[in-house]
């Protein structure tokens, strides 16, 4: 697709001129991935610009950039003064059909590169996608005959429309045109901190557990028998941030796609009682079939608002914390999901994250920030 030998003339000289500093543009800086990555890069001494439609006011030392990725003119104006060395795509927009997902999410990638005043000055650009690369889009999720696990990066694309594929192609085309290296990162379910995020299993389960403790409802695993009994893995947002940082600074990671998970495997029937214990509740016996959270939490808005008032919580709107539809999609899958990390290991990435800590660290932060009781 792309290699160093095909860089445009002058690209090496421009790179040498900018090697003394690293400046990142994090696209989607208020999401689970973007927040963790921006914090990591800032801790490494990078200058970090965080792009979002509505940046928060407490992003320092990240420099907020407000822009709509679907408004090329406004995006061009917002990025006019930026000369990043690295761009990280950590954002997507959900639409009703995969055809719309393809159109909109690939356009977002192209618009950023078109808006940057000097895209030829980039050294690296990274795209975060996920296991839908192997399982298919939401409207055909884990249906048909998904590939056998463990998922490996050299598995062919599915013969389905999938916005991940179109985002990759937009990234490859820009890298070819402007002479920078690229990496693609495919996490499993991401566990991390973000309020108002469309896909947030960790916080969703924290809200569910808090409701069960407050009301005495049984804390029932909502997913499928395949997920309850089978092996699986997840990706801590901090582990993903480490992976993105590594790929952006490592020659061995250039122009490669990588899976990224915590590095351990577990069964939900083992983890579920441990999550319950953190909330001082009992894990209910598994009923033998899925009991989706969308149904369990339907109409829970007033209930959560009452819990928020009693405990002085900062967020009374349950929809800002819980994304039951996404958690149901992940936990309701009828197939085993295990991800191979050999490619990253062989290339030099050796970081590891213990999965129970991914959840309990998040729960502790949510409680400390008065987002759960």
From TrEMBL:
Signal peptide: none annotated. SUPFAM superfamilies: NAD(P)-binding Rossmann-fold domains. Residues 85-373 form the PRISE-like Rossmann-fold domain. CDD domains: 5beta-POR_like_SDR_a. InterPro entries: NAD(P)-bd_dom_sf, PRISE-like_Rossmann-fold. Pfam families: PRISE (PF22917). This is Putative NAD dependent epimerase. It comes from Gluconacetobacter diazotrophicus (strain ATCC 49037 / DSM 5601 / CCUG 37298 / CIP 103539 / LMG 7603 / PAl5). The lineage of its organism: Bacteria, Pseudomonadati, Pseudomonadota, Alphaproteobacteria, Acetobacterales.
